[in-house]
Structures are given as structure tokens and as C-alpha cells.
Design a protein that fits this description.
With 417 residues, the protein is mainly α. 80% of the residues lie in helices and 0% in strands. It is built from 14 helices and no strands. Helix 2 crosses helix 11, helix 6 packs across helix 9 and helix 11 crosses helix 12.
């Protein structure tokens, strides 16, 4: 237990990143719009994507390097491909997470009486960047652990109470054929849902960066087994919560004729209402605070992940390790670039939270097979045979690659033609 606590951090950070938009937004929307019709997609995405996220922690523990270093070892083409993938989705992802966070902040503090949601979003970005500039990984690590505990308790409370009270509509099915029609809107939402369930595959590099950062911050380098156990704890915790959010949407919205608001402030208000309607009006402040907290933690983690990954890419492209002071300045500069770019995207697409989230998640899903294949290749050729994935993980990886590739090709084909 002592060793587990020393290594605890990267897995919780991953869970926080996942629980944000994919769970709170996409899973709830899936339940509200399709009942249990997309439960299979949520479960399948969590299971079949698992190896490629675990390989980030595995690679970092076995080599002491990040997956981004591994991409360079594959060749400069792969490093540049990762840069292209990151640039294609970075600002959209950051903007989507920031928009949701701002919506909850707007509701929690009653800011609609003072100024617009756009100003609140700018404040969220400024706060996230300021916290990271002051505290770096240490404050991120400690903040996420507290926030995650609060959200876990409130989500499980709402989930079990909704199960006890029963659904508002009993007209459920566990499969919706319409979502498999590539020409229909249901298929677009299916791709968006799986694109960020539990999160984007290209963010697997963050797990490796956080694993290295945690070891430096704590002064303790855990064994491969300890690293994987800690990551699995965070991953499967987030995987368990995904259906819980879907159930809340299905039980409280599906079949009632209601729909979740597309704007960030309106959506936040609807989510808070779902919880308080189930638990009681007394819980409104607690639910608003916990929902805002987890989204705020997710927003901070996303900013940190992109800045950390961008810094590592630049250092590798320069083909030399920068001095600590230069590294710190580069990290700070990247935070400002990410924040500014995301804010610009939000101001352009901000009228519809749904469109913003769907764009970000769809981009993530289309590029997922490439990252999945490379991650699998990197861990399959680790110097130590004991660190390589065993048979079950290899089989799951092949199935996951086929799954991701098939849906991406179908999506691209019908999108082009």
C-alpha cells in the first residue's frame, strides 16, 4: 500500500481527463438521446482502447522515456505525424473542455448576472494557466486527487438513487440500429462518443509523461508492476463511471421529450438539474461544485498535457536536451499559445457546445488507429521481454486496431463521398 501511494498520480490524472467531457457530456447525452441503445459502444470503446493507453505507462516505466521519445525512434516521420495530429485536435479539444468548465462555473457562481459566458470561459483559461505556471505537476497531482474523490461520491450517490427510484420511461432497448447508418446523424454521434471514450488515443503519450513527472516529483521510481497497477486503478475507475453517466441520462431524460441544451451554460444547468432532481434540492450546491471541480481539473490536466507534450516534441526536434530554465520558459510559452488558440476557437464555435465537442471527438477517433498501431509496435519491441505485453494484451490490441480502423474508414468514406 505504501508503494502504491508513492506511485499514485498518473492513473488518477488520466481518470480525471477521461471523466470530464467523455463521461459528463457524451455519456449523459448518449443516455438522454438513445436510452441504453449506445451502452454497447461505451463498453466496447473502454475495453478495446485500454491496451493503447496502458502502453503509455508501460513504455515510460520500462524505458524511463515518454512515448513521444519512442515516436522519434520510429523515425522523424512519426514524430512529425504526431505533431500534425496534435495540432489538428489540440485547440478544439482544449476549447471544448474549457467551454464545459465555464458552463459549470457560470452556474455555480451565478455569473450570468454579471457577464457573458464568453468572459467566463476566458477566466477559466486564465485560471488554469496561472495554476500551472505557479505549481506545475505538484499542484496538478494534489488537486486532482481531492477533486476526483468528491466527484466519485456524488456520481455514485446519484447513480444508486436513480436505480432505486427507477426510470421515467420504460421504453428502452439495448441497441439502436439507426446509429449504424453512416448517412444518418446517429452515426456521427456514435463516432464522436467513441472518439473520446474514455478519451482520445493520442493522449496516451500524456500517461507516459505524467509517469515520468511523478517519479521525479516523488523521488521514487516504481516497478513496472506498480506502475501498471496504479494506471489500471485509474483507468477502470473511469471505465466504470462511464455507464453510470449513461444510466443517469437514460433514467432521467430519455422518453420524457426533453433534451439537453447545446450551449455550455444551458448544458451545465441541465446536468445540475438532473442530479438535484434525483438526490434532492439540498444537494444543488454540492453537485454544482463537484461538477465544476472535475471539469476544472480536467481542463488543467488538458492544458498541462498539451504543453508538456509540445515541449518534449520541440526538445526532440532540436535534437538536444534543453537547460531546465529554457525548458520552463518553453512550457510557459506553450501554455499561453494553447490558451489563446483554444479561446479563439471557442469564440468562433462557442454558440453550440454540441458542435464543438463533436468536432474535437470526431478528429480524435479518425486518427486513433495510427497511434494505436505505433504504441503497440513500441511496447512489442521493448528490450526486456518481461516488459512486453502478454498474449491476452496482444490479442486485445489486434482486435482494438481492427475496431478503430473499421469505424474510421467507414466514417471517412461516407464523409468524403
Amino acid at each position: 500500500m505504501n508503494k502504491f501511494l508513492k506511485s499514485l498520480g498518473p492513473g488518477i490524472l488520466f481518470a480525471s481527463t477521461a471523466i470530464g467531457v467523455s463521461h459528463l457530456v457524451q455519456s449523459t447525452r448518449a443516455g438522454a438521446d438513445y436510452g441504453f441503445g449506445l451502452l454497447w459502444a461505451v463498453i466496447l470503446a473502454n475495453v478495446l482502447k485500454y491496451p493503447f493507453f496502458e502502453y503509455g505507462a508501460r513504455y515510460a516505466s520500462a524505458t524511463g522515456e515518454s512515448l513521444i521519445d519512442g515516436y522519434k525512434r520510429k523515425g522523424l516521420w512519426m514524430l512529425w505525424l504526431y505533431v500534425g495530429i496534435t495540432l489538428a485536435s489540440m485547440f478544439f479539444v482544449s476549447a471544448a473542455v474549457g467551454a464545459v468548465t465555464a458552463g459549470f462555473m457560470h452556474q455555480l457562481f451565478g455569473l450570468e448576472k454579471l457577464f457573458s459566458i464568453k468572459i467566463t470561459t476566458a477566466l477559466v483559461f486564465i485560471l488554469c494557466i496561472a495554476i500551472l505556471l505557479i505549481g506545475r505537476y505538484k499542484i496538478l497531482d494534489r488537486l486532482i486527487k481531492v477533486i476526483g474523490s468528491v466527484l466519485l461520491i456524488s456520481t455514485l450517490s446519484a447513480f444508486f438513487i436513480s436505480i432505486w427510484q427507477g426510470p421515467k420511461s420504460h421504453d428502452f432497448s439495448f441497441f439502436s440500429a439507426e446509429v449504424l447508418d453512416p448517412t444518418g446523424p446517429g452515426f456521427l454521434f456514435l463516432i464522436a462518443l467513441m472518439g473520446w471514450m474514455p478519451t482520445a488515443v493520442d493522449l496516451s503519450a500524456w500517461s507516459s509523461l505524467w509517469t515520468i513527472a511523478r517519479a521525479k516529483e516523488s523521488g521514487y521510481r516504481p516497478s513496472l508492476k506498480e506502475t501498471l497497477n496504479e494506471f489500471r486503478f485509474g483507468y477502470w475507475l473511469s471505465a466504470f463511471l462511464a455507464p453510470c453517466f449513461l444510466v443517469l441520462g437514460a433514467f432521467l431524460v430519455y422518453g420524457t421529450g426533453q433534451s439537453l441544451n447545446a450551449s455550455s451554460a444551458g448544458f451545465a444547468n441541465d446536468i445540475i438539474s438532473l442530479y438535484t432532481e434525483n438526490i434532492g434540492d439540498w444537494s444543488e450546491l454540492l453537485i454544482a461544485a463537484s461538477a465544476f471541480s472535475i471539469m476544472f481539473g480536467t481542463c488543467i490536466a488538458v492544458f498541462d498535457g498539451y504543453a508538456r507534450a509540445g515541449r518534449r516534441v520541440i526538445v526532440l526536434l532540436q535534437n538536444k536536451e534543453d537547460l531546465h530554465q529554457a525548458n520552463s520558459r518553453l512550457y510557459s510559452l506553450l501554455l499561453l499559445v494553447i490558451g489563446g488558440g483554444a479561446l479563439a476557437i471557442y469564440y468562433f464555435f462557442g454558440s453550440s457546445l454540441k458542435s464543438l465537442v463533436d468536432i474535437a471527438t470526431s478528429i480524435s477517433f479518425v486518427i486513433a488507429p495510427i497511434i494505436a498501431i505505433v504504441n503497440f509496435q513500441l511496447v512489442s519491441h521493448l528490450p526486456e521481454e518481461a516488459a512486453r505485453p502478454k498474449l491476452v494484451m496482444r490479442i486485445l490490441s489486434y482486435v482494438g486496431i481492427i475496431f478503430l480502423s473499421a469505424f474510421s474508414l467507414i466514417y471517412l468514406f461516407f464523409g468524403i463521398f
